[in-house]
Design goal:
321 residues; mainly alpha; 4-stranded antiparallel β-sheet; 4 strands; binds heme C
């Protein structure tokens, strides 16, 4: 009763998360620190919600890329695709882990190769720790007792790095804690490793703190030249005073080497992808196969032909039960 009176009679402040829901999903929102919301209904490791998404958090898989001049110039949003409803969600999802030029480079050929770069510094790096962890787990099914300590050490090291990259994912933290406090000769240790092998799949979605860029001769595609930078500054500061022709000529310079429409799906998701070598990028065998494999390719081709996208059958099967 006391509780009810207090609740009714005192003026309660609306939660910070409701009154301060961001109205635009711009670069600032994506970079917003979850510290701001700590103690206001958000626990450590949880993410704040996005606009239009009172029930959704901005997932951790979207990590800011301050070296991306297409967005930092203020010209394009970090989730830039809006034109075609059939594909825009997929394309925007991909810009979380692919640099714009991977799809938009006009001069990509067989000599170019896709590699990982770290965020925010954009230095070329090995495949993310999380993918190496998934690969290691896939390769080790039955662990002999004498190999367990060495494997435990490798798993813990990769997990420790993946944990940092993921912005301290709660599940990864729990696995690391259990791995490092369990006797490697016990059944319990085996069961933790098995649980990780089954569960790691849920984390292979951009919790990498890294993105894929396209490189030729160790140079990344899409970095603007001095001339392009100058054209961008001129365009943004003097746009209103320029004639249509002058604007177009600046835009042409800014977008030199950029394909307006980008690569759709098959350059990457097909049996012999031209743009991406999933295995070389560190994706483990079964994931690499599934991304090139028949189901996804079929759905993707349907999208390209403008036919409806059907959810995989597994969901219908669950519904039937
Ligand atoms: C997975 C590949 C891919 C990535 C990554 C990608 N794009 Fe695109 N982009 C496309 C495709 C394909 C189209 C054409 C879409 C269509 O057919 O409607 C496109 C279209 C566009 C358009 C035209 C307008 C629109 O709304 O569709 C803009 C602008 C654009 N991309 C900017 C960017 C920027 C900026 C980035 C990086 C932040 C980026 N793209 C990353 C594939 C990609
Ligand atoms: C430039 C290469 C590229 C293009 C073009 C591309 N993708 Fe992808 N796609 C990837 C990569 C790399 C991943 C893995 C992402 C990760 O690690 O989270 C992926 C993941 C996916 C996944 C998740 C699959 C899984 O097993 O987790 C789906 C679904 C998907 N892409 C569909 C599409 C569709 C539909 C299009 C076209 C609209 C498309 N992709 C275009 C490279 C590409």
């Amino acid at each position: 009763m006391n509780f009810l009176f207090t609740l009714l009679l005192t003026r309660q402040k609306a939660p910070i998360e409701i009154v301060e829901i961001p109205s635009r999903l711009d670069a600032d929102t994506l970079q917003v620190s979850s510290e701001k919301y700590l103690g206001h209904g958000l626990a450590s490791g949880e993410r704040p919600r996005g606009p239009l998404a009172h029930f959704h958090q901005i997932p951790i898989w979207y990590q800011a890329d301050p070296g991306n001049s297409c967005s930092t110039s203020g010209c394009h949003a970090p989730l830039p695709h809006g034109e075609r409803i059939e594909v825009r969600a997929f394309l925007n999802m991909h810009s979380a882990f692919l640099d714009c030029a991977v799809c938009h480079a006009a001069d990509a050929d067989r000599a170019t190769s896709a590699r990982w770069f770290g965020l925010p510094g954009r230095d070329v790096q090995k495949p993310p720790a999380l993918l190496r962890l998934a690969d290691l787990l896939e390769q080790t099914s039955d662990v002999a007792a004498e190999q367990a300590p060495a494997l435990n050490k490798q798993l813990s090291e990769l997990l420790r790095q993946a944990l940092i990259d993921s912005g301290h994912n709660v599940q990864l933290a729990e696995w690391l804690q259990r791995l490092t406090t369990t006797n490697t000769q016990s059944k319990l240790w085996q069961s933790i490793v098995n649980e990780m092998r089954r569960g790691i799949r849920m984390h292979e979605h951009g919790e990498y703190n890294a993105k894929i860029g396209l490189y030729s001769n160790n140079k990344i595609h899409g970095r603007p030249s001095d001339q392009q930078k100058a054209a961008t500054t001129r365009y943004l500061s003097r746009k209103n005073q320029l004639s249509d022709d002058q604007q177009q000529s600046l835009l042409d310079t800014i977008h030199e080497g950029v394909l307006p429409d980008g690569a759709l799906c098959t350059p990457c998701h097909s049996p012999d992808p031209k743009l991406i070598d999933f295995k070389a990028l560190g994706y483990h065998q079964s994931r690499a196969e599934s991304m090139k494999g028949s189901e996804i390719v079929r759905q993707v081709l349907n999208i390209e032909k403008g036919q409806p996208f059907h959810l995989p059958r597994i969901l219908e099967d669950l519904d039937d039960r």
